Protein backbone atom coordinates (compact mmCIF):
# COMPACT_ATOMS: atom_id res chain seq x y z
CA UNK A 1 0.00 0.00 0.00
CA UNK A 2 1.51 3.35 -1.06
CA UNK A 3 -0.68 5.38 1.29
CA UNK A 4 -1.31 5.12 5.02
CA UNK A 5 -4.55 4.74 6.95
CA UNK A 6 -4.67 5.00 10.72
CA UNK A 7 -5.96 1.80 12.35
CA UNK A 8 -8.99 3.77 13.52
CA UNK A 9 -9.59 5.27 10.06
CA UNK A 10 -11.62 3.79 7.21
CA UNK A 11 -10.73 4.04 3.53
CA UNK A 12 -13.16 2.23 1.19
CA UNK A 13 -11.92 3.83 -2.02
CA UNK A 14 -9.69 1.95 -4.45
CA UNK A 15 -8.52 5.25 -5.94
CA UNK A 16 -6.08 6.74 -3.45
CA UNK A 17 -2.71 8.18 -4.49
CA UNK A 18 0.78 7.61 -3.20
CA UNK A 19 1.85 9.40 -0.04
CA UNK A 20 -1.71 10.12 1.12
CA UNK A 21 -2.40 9.91 4.85
CA UNK A 22 -5.81 9.14 6.39
CA UNK A 23 -5.99 9.97 10.10
CA UNK A 24 -7.97 8.32 12.89
CA UNK A 25 -11.76 8.29 12.54
CA UNK A 26 -11.59 9.68 9.01
CA UNK A 27 -13.82 7.96 6.44
CA UNK A 28 -13.14 7.91 2.70
CA UNK A 29 -16.15 6.49 0.88
CA UNK A 30 -15.83 4.00 -1.96
CA UNK A 31 -16.87 6.48 -4.65
CA UNK A 32 -14.25 9.08 -3.72
CA UNK A 33 -11.05 9.69 -5.70
CA UNK A 34 -8.01 10.92 -3.75
CA UNK A 35 -4.77 12.13 -5.33
CA UNK A 36 -1.15 11.90 -4.24
CA UNK A 37 0.20 13.36 -0.98
CA UNK A 38 -3.25 14.25 0.35
CA UNK A 39 -3.59 14.76 4.11
CA UNK A 40 -6.94 13.95 5.73
CA UNK A 41 -7.22 14.94 9.37
CA UNK A 42 -8.97 13.17 12.20
CA UNK A 43 -12.72 12.71 11.70
CA UNK A 44 -12.75 13.91 8.08
CA UNK A 45 -15.50 12.52 5.85
CA UNK A 46 -14.94 12.33 2.08
CA UNK A 47 -18.17 11.28 0.39
CA UNK A 48 -18.95 9.50 -2.86
CA UNK A 49 -18.41 11.67 -5.93
CA UNK A 50 -15.69 13.76 -4.27
CA UNK A 51 -12.38 14.17 -6.10
CA UNK A 52 -9.34 15.48 -4.24
CA UNK A 53 -6.37 16.48 -6.41
CA UNK A 54 -2.71 16.12 -5.44
CA UNK A 55 -1.34 17.88 -2.33
CA UNK A 56 -4.76 18.73 -0.87
CA UNK A 57 -4.99 19.19 2.90
CA UNK A 58 -8.26 18.67 4.82
CA UNK A 59 -8.42 19.60 8.51
CA UNK A 60 -9.98 17.63 11.33
CA UNK A 61 -13.72 16.94 11.22
CA UNK A 62 -14.25 18.63 7.86
CA UNK A 63 -17.03 17.14 5.73
CA UNK A 64 -16.91 16.94 1.94
CA UNK A 65 -20.45 15.83 1.32
CA UNK A 66 -21.24 12.91 -0.97
CA UNK A 67 -23.00 13.37 -4.28
CA UNK A 68 -26.75 13.88 -4.40
CA UNK A 69 -29.07 12.92 -7.29
CA UNK A 70 -28.33 15.26 -10.19
CA UNK A 71 -25.38 16.93 -8.43
CA UNK A 72 -22.07 17.42 -10.20
CA UNK A 73 -18.82 16.00 -8.92
CA UNK A 74 -17.24 17.80 -5.96
CA UNK A 75 -13.66 18.76 -6.83
CA UNK A 76 -10.85 20.18 -4.69
CA UNK A 77 -7.97 21.42 -6.84
CA UNK A 78 -4.23 20.81 -6.45
CA UNK A 79 -2.63 22.32 -3.39
CA UNK A 80 -5.91 23.56 -1.91
CA UNK A 81 -6.64 23.37 1.80
CA UNK A 82 -9.95 22.87 3.61
CA UNK A 83 -9.87 23.97 7.23
CA UNK A 84 -10.96 22.00 10.26
CA UNK A 85 -14.70 21.76 10.84
CA UNK A 86 -15.59 23.04 7.37
CA UNK A 87 -18.42 21.72 5.23
CA UNK A 88 -18.32 21.50 1.43
CA UNK A 89 -21.68 20.83 -0.22
CA UNK A 90 -22.06 18.49 -3.21
CA UNK A 91 -21.16 19.79 -6.66
CA UNK A 92 -18.80 22.54 -5.52
CA UNK A 93 -15.41 23.11 -7.15
CA UNK A 94 -12.58 24.53 -5.04
CA UNK A 95 -9.80 25.91 -7.23
CA UNK A 96 -6.08 25.31 -7.27
CA UNK A 97 -4.29 26.51 -4.10
CA UNK A 98 -7.49 27.99 -2.66
CA UNK A 99 -7.72 28.18 1.12
CA UNK A 100 -10.92 27.43 3.05
CA UNK A 101 -10.73 28.77 6.62
CA UNK A 102 -11.74 26.55 9.55
CA UNK A 103 -15.48 26.32 10.15
CA UNK A 104 -16.42 27.59 6.70
CA UNK A 105 -19.52 26.38 4.85
CA UNK A 106 -18.77 26.25 1.12
CA UNK A 107 -21.95 26.40 -0.96
CA UNK A 108 -20.53 27.84 -4.21
CA UNK A 109 -17.40 27.40 -6.31
CA UNK A 110 -14.19 28.90 -4.90
CA UNK A 111 -11.83 30.48 -7.48
CA UNK A 112 -8.17 29.44 -7.69
CA UNK A 113 -5.98 31.06 -5.00
CA UNK A 114 -8.97 32.55 -3.16
CA UNK A 115 -9.16 32.63 0.64
CA UNK A 116 -12.72 32.10 1.91
CA UNK A 117 -14.39 32.04 5.30
CA UNK A 118 -17.80 32.23 6.94
CA UNK A 119 -21.25 30.70 6.52
CA UNK A 120 -21.86 30.84 3.65
CA UNK A 121 -18.27 31.21 2.42
CA UNK A 122 -17.15 34.60 1.15
CA UNK A 123 -13.83 35.65 -0.31
CA UNK A 124 -11.67 37.60 2.13
CA UNK A 125 -8.38 37.57 0.24
CA UNK A 126 -6.10 35.81 -2.20
CA UNK A 127 -3.10 33.62 -1.54
CA UNK A 128 0.18 35.53 -2.03
CA UNK A 129 -1.71 38.80 -2.52
CA UNK A 130 -3.43 39.55 0.77
CA UNK A 131 -2.31 41.20 4.01
CA UNK A 132 -1.51 37.86 5.66
CA UNK A 133 1.57 37.38 3.40
CA UNK A 134 4.81 39.14 4.31
CA UNK A 135 5.97 41.72 1.76
CA UNK A 136 2.99 40.99 -0.47
CA UNK A 137 0.26 42.85 1.35
CA UNK A 138 -2.79 44.64 0.10
CA UNK A 139 -1.66 47.95 -1.42
CA UNK A 140 -3.83 51.04 -1.31
CA UNK A 141 -3.72 52.63 -4.70
CA UNK A 142 -4.09 56.21 -3.46
CA UNK A 143 -0.31 56.40 -3.07
CA UNK A 144 0.23 55.15 -6.65
CA UNK A 145 2.51 52.25 -5.76
CA UNK A 146 4.65 50.62 -8.39
CA UNK A 147 3.14 47.41 -9.65
CA UNK A 148 5.11 44.25 -8.91
CA UNK A 149 3.35 42.38 -11.71
CA UNK A 150 4.78 42.83 -15.23
CA UNK A 151 2.05 43.92 -17.62
CA UNK A 152 0.15 45.85 -14.94
CA UNK A 153 0.49 49.60 -14.39
CA UNK A 154 -1.12 52.20 -12.16
CA UNK A 155 -2.06 55.48 -13.86
CA UNK A 156 -2.93 58.91 -12.53
CA UNK A 157 -5.83 60.55 -14.39
CA UNK A 158 -6.20 64.34 -14.47
CA UNK A 159 -8.50 65.62 -11.73
CA UNK A 160 -9.80 69.12 -10.96
CA UNK A 161 -11.57 70.11 -7.72
CA UNK A 162 -13.17 73.43 -6.81
CA UNK A 163 -16.25 74.77 -5.00
CA UNK A 164 -18.47 73.62 -7.85
CA UNK A 165 -17.42 69.99 -7.47
CA UNK A 166 -14.87 67.66 -9.04
CA UNK A 167 -14.01 66.55 -12.56
CA UNK A 168 -11.84 63.72 -13.89
CA UNK A 169 -10.90 63.76 -17.58
CA UNK A 170 -8.57 62.07 -20.07
CA UNK A 171 -7.85 62.39 -23.79
CA UNK A 172 -8.05 58.89 -25.22
CA UNK A 173 -5.19 59.34 -27.68
CA UNK A 174 -2.84 61.20 -25.30
CA UNK A 175 -3.45 60.23 -21.69
CA UNK A 176 -4.30 56.55 -21.90
CA UNK A 177 -2.04 53.59 -22.76
CA UNK A 178 -4.42 52.57 -25.58
CA UNK A 179 -7.34 54.05 -27.49
CA UNK A 180 -10.53 52.49 -26.13
CA UNK A 181 -12.99 50.88 -28.52
CA UNK A 182 -15.44 49.70 -25.88
CA UNK A 183 -16.50 50.50 -22.33
CA UNK A 184 -18.76 48.95 -19.75
CA UNK A 185 -19.67 49.58 -16.13
CA UNK A 186 -20.15 47.12 -13.30
CA UNK A 187 -22.36 48.09 -10.35
CA UNK A 188 -24.90 46.69 -7.91
CA UNK A 189 -22.57 43.77 -7.11
CA UNK A 190 -23.25 42.08 -3.75
CA UNK A 191 -20.18 42.36 -1.54
CA UNK A 192 -19.87 38.57 -1.43
CA UNK A 193 -19.67 38.18 -5.21
CA UNK A 194 -16.64 38.11 -7.49
CA UNK A 195 -16.35 39.63 -10.95
CA UNK A 196 -13.70 39.19 -13.59
CA UNK A 197 -11.79 35.96 -12.94
CA UNK A 198 -10.51 35.78 -16.51
CA UNK A 199 -7.74 36.96 -18.82
CA UNK A 200 -7.70 38.37 -22.36
CA UNK A 201 -5.42 37.16 -25.12
CA UNK A 202 -5.32 40.45 -27.07
CA UNK A 203 -7.41 43.06 -25.26
CA UNK A 204 -5.98 45.74 -22.95
CA UNK A 205 -8.22 46.96 -20.10
CA UNK A 206 -8.19 50.02 -17.86
CA UNK A 207 -10.15 49.74 -14.61
CA UNK A 208 -11.38 52.90 -12.88
CA UNK A 209 -13.63 52.81 -9.83
CA UNK A 210 -15.63 55.99 -10.35
CA UNK A 211 -17.61 55.56 -7.13
CA UNK A 212 -17.13 53.51 -3.97
CA UNK A 213 -14.36 50.94 -3.77
CA UNK A 214 -13.37 47.51 -4.98
CA UNK A 215 -10.38 45.21 -4.53
CA UNK A 216 -8.62 44.10 -7.71
CA UNK A 217 -6.23 41.14 -7.88
CA UNK A 218 -3.90 40.81 -10.87
CA UNK A 219 -1.84 37.77 -11.80
CA UNK A 220 0.60 37.10 -14.65
CA UNK A 221 1.10 33.44 -13.81
CA UNK A 222 4.13 34.09 -11.61
CA UNK A 223 3.39 37.16 -9.49
CA UNK A 224 0.14 38.26 -7.90
CA UNK A 225 -0.78 41.60 -6.34
CA UNK A 226 -3.89 43.15 -4.83
CA UNK A 227 -4.97 46.78 -5.14
CA UNK A 228 -7.77 48.80 -3.60
CA UNK A 229 -9.44 50.95 -6.26
CA UNK A 230 -11.24 53.75 -4.43
CA UNK A 231 -10.51 56.94 -6.43
CA UNK A 232 -11.92 58.05 -9.78
CA UNK A 233 -8.61 59.68 -10.77
CA UNK A 234 -6.61 56.43 -10.67
CA UNK A 235 -6.70 53.64 -13.22
CA UNK A 236 -5.33 50.12 -13.24
CA UNK A 237 -4.02 49.12 -16.67
CA UNK A 238 -3.98 45.40 -17.42
CA UNK A 239 -2.13 44.30 -20.55
CA UNK A 240 -3.19 41.17 -22.45
CA UNK A 241 -2.51 37.83 -20.75
CA UNK A 242 -3.11 39.24 -17.28
CA UNK A 243 -5.56 37.37 -15.07
CA UNK A 244 -7.84 39.82 -13.28
CA UNK A 245 -10.33 39.38 -10.45
CA UNK A 246 -12.42 42.01 -8.66
CA UNK A 247 -14.16 41.52 -5.32
CA UNK A 248 -15.14 43.32 -2.09
CA UNK A 249 -17.41 45.72 -3.93
CA UNK A 250 -18.75 48.42 -1.64
CA UNK A 251 -22.53 48.84 -1.78
CA UNK A 252 -22.20 51.99 -3.90
CA UNK A 253 -19.31 50.82 -6.11
CA UNK A 254 -19.35 51.64 -9.83
CA UNK A 255 -16.47 50.20 -11.84
CA UNK A 256 -15.73 51.67 -15.29
CA UNK A 257 -13.78 49.41 -17.64
CA UNK A 258 -12.24 50.74 -20.87
CA UNK A 259 -11.24 48.08 -23.40
CA UNK A 260 -8.92 48.30 -26.40
CA UNK A 261 -11.02 45.92 -28.54
CA UNK A 262 -14.67 45.16 -29.22
CA UNK A 263 -16.22 42.24 -27.39
CA UNK A 264 -14.96 38.88 -28.65
CA UNK A 265 -15.80 35.73 -26.66
CA UNK A 266 -12.80 33.94 -28.19
CA UNK A 267 -10.47 36.49 -26.60
CA UNK A 268 -11.39 35.34 -23.09
CA UNK A 269 -9.54 32.72 -21.02
CA UNK A 270 -11.84 31.72 -18.17
CA UNK A 271 -9.97 28.70 -16.78
CA UNK A 272 -6.92 29.52 -14.67
CA UNK A 273 -5.08 26.32 -15.55
CA UNK A 274 -5.59 27.10 -19.25
CA UNK A 275 -4.25 30.60 -18.60
CA UNK A 276 -1.13 29.21 -16.93
CA UNK A 277 -0.56 26.89 -19.88
CA UNK A 278 -0.92 29.72 -22.40
CA UNK A 279 1.52 32.02 -20.61
CA UNK A 280 3.98 29.14 -20.49
CA UNK A 281 4.09 28.77 -16.72
CA UNK A 282 3.80 25.40 -15.02
CA UNK A 283 0.85 25.15 -12.67
CA UNK A 284 2.03 25.86 -9.09
CA UNK A 285 2.33 22.80 -6.88
Automatic annotation (TrEMBL):
<dbReference type="Pfam" id="PF05523">
    <property type="entry name" value="FdtA"/>
</dbReference>
<feature type="domain" description="Sugar 3,4-ketoisomerase QdtA cupin">
    <location>
        <begin position="152"/>
        <end position="278"/>
    </location>
</feature>
<dbReference type="InterPro" id="IPR014710">
    <property type="entry name" value="RmlC-like_jellyroll"/>
</dbReference>
<keyword id="KW-0677">Repeat</keyword>
<dbReference type="InterPro" id="IPR008894">
    <property type="entry name" value="QdtA_cupin_dom"/>
</dbReference>
<dbReference type="InterPro" id="IPR011051">
    <property type="entry name" value="RmlC_Cupin_sf"/>
</dbReference>
<dbReference type="InterPro" id="IPR001451">
    <property type="entry name" value="Hexapep"/>
</dbReference>
<keyword id="KW-0808">Transferase</keyword>
<dbReference type="Pfam" id="PF00132">
    <property type="entry name" value="Hexapep"/>
</dbReference>
<dbReference type="InterPro" id="IPR011004">
    <property type="entry name" value="Trimer_LpxA-like_sf"/>
</dbReference>
<dbReference type="InterPro" id="IPR050179">
    <property type="entry name" value="Trans_hexapeptide_repeat"/>
</dbReference>
<dbReference type="InterPro" id="IPR018357">
    <property type="entry name" value="Hexapep_transf_CS"/>
</dbReference>
<dbReference type="GO" id="GO:0016740">
    <property type="term" value="F:transferase activity"/>
</dbReference>
<protein>
    <submittedName>
        <fullName>Serine acetyltransferase</fullName>
    </submittedName>
</protein>
Amino acid sequence: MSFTVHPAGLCESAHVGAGTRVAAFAHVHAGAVVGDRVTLGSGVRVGDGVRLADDVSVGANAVLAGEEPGAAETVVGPGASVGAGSTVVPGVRIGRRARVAPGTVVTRDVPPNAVVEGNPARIVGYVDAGPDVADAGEVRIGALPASRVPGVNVLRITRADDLRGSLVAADFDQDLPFVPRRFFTVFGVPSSDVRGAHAHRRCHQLLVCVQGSINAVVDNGVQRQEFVLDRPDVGLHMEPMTWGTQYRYSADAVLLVLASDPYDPDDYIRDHDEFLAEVGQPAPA
